[in-house]
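#lab-general

N.A. 3:47 PM
ok so I finally got the sequence cleaned up, no stray characters, all 147 residues accounted for. can someone with queue access submit it? mine expired

B.Y. 3:52 PM
send it over

N.A. 3:53 PM
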Amino acid sequence: MKLHRPGLLALSFLGIFGLGGCDEHACGLVAYPNGLLITFDDSFTTGQTFDVTISEVTTTPEIVPVMNCTVTGGSPAEIACASGLFHAEQFGGVVIADDKPSRLDIAVSSNGMKLAEKQFDVVFTTSEPNGPGCGTATSPTVTMSLK
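B.Y. 4:20 PM
back already:
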């Protein structure tokens, strides 16, 4: 797991490790992302390298790049991202922990040729992955495909 801006790690990613308050009942230890999870499906060909630009779509609407990633297809994909946002490459994708965009634009290219560009509405939902009373997770997932 690669983490960026590690000074914020301890407080921002507690949910990733399934830590939460439990009363007097058993809780699961399911790891979950606590933030926006962006994954890449199997259309990202094994061994091929892709350049991915993740942008926020503002209300004006303006497309503002917030992260650049290199994705090498495989199972799981190898992902390396650069951004000023607090993020981690894990869970088969990238988790953005300190930003809550409502709309994303994801553009994918390889060898200088644009292969796909899609926009996604981000819907934040809260669940209790380790059982009732065992902490909550707010973790929408967006899956990018070349199809």
